[in-house]
Amino acid sequence: LLDLKKALDEGAIDQNEYDLMKDKIINDEYIKSFFKQMDEIDEEEFDSVSI
Fold first, then answer.
1. Does the pTM of the predicted model rise above 0.70?
2. Domain that holds residue 32
3. What is the domain count for the chain?
């Protein structure tokens, strides 16, 4: 995000482009975190199952 802010400050991108890219970055990180948590939950469930 710092590089993105620098590009905005230097005029390489406009505010709309900045907002769009920032949202994409934040949403991507949220989705990665969500799936990582789901993987951890799956591992915990498998660890507690015995046959």
1. no
2. 2-48
3. 1
